[in-house]
């Protein structure tokens, strides 16, 4: 091949962007002279399987680090009532609802739908309890906490 026909190329580092949010995975990269489909030049995506999670995204109270700053639900409210001794977070929950019982004695909770049907109920013996709400259909539910 004639050396006059060879073109020089500056290789750039491209990061895999599996969720197409314009931010790539720091650990999955390649070098190329040209753009590659599914890869981007911007890195820093802390969850490359969710397009709503990327550096600079709006933080949502969901138990996740939406903005990739290393803090979960930073700057967002937690229901904390010192009169009752309970903290409930995140509100609204994403997959897990955390209930913290600072009373020092057992309590119980129940989750009902708006028709009063009990969806979940449990004794709260521990100071902290995690409730899986990932299987609940979208909607409004009531959380009732009972103490002795």
How would you describe this protein?
With 148 residues, the chain is mainly beta. It is built from no helices and 10 strands. The protein has strands spanning 12-16, 29-32, 39-40, 79-81, 86-89, 96-101, 107-113, 118-124, 128-132, 141-147. Strand 7 (107-113) and strand 8 (118-124) form a beta hairpin. It is elongated and about 90 Å long.
Describe the protein's topology.
Layout: E1 12-16, E2 29-32, E3 39-40, E4 79-81, E5 86-89, E6 96-101, E7 107-113, E8 118-124, E9 128-132, E10 141-147
Antiparallel strand pairs: 1-2, 1-3, 4-5, 5-6, 6-9, 7-8, 7-10
Brief descriptors of the model:
mainly beta, four-stranded antiparallel beta sheet, elongated, three-stranded antiparallel beta sheet
Question: Can you describe this structure in just a few lines?
Answer:
With about 150 residues, this protein is mainly β. It has no helices and ten strands.
Average pLDDT works out at 83
Query: In percent, how much strand structure appears in the residues?
Result: 25-35%
Look at the helices and sheets and give the structural class: mainly beta
Question: Count of helices?
Answer: 0
- How many DSSP E strands? 10
The ordered string of helix (H) and strand (E) elements is EEEEEEEEEE
- Percent helix, as a range, is under 10%
Alpha carbon gyration radius: 24 Å
- Please give the order of strands in the largest beta sheet: 4-5-6-9
How far is it from the N-terminal to the C-terminal residue, by CA? 88 Å
Low-pLDDT runs: none
Q: Looking at the structure, what is the overall shape?
A: elongated
Largest sheet: 4 strands, antiparallel
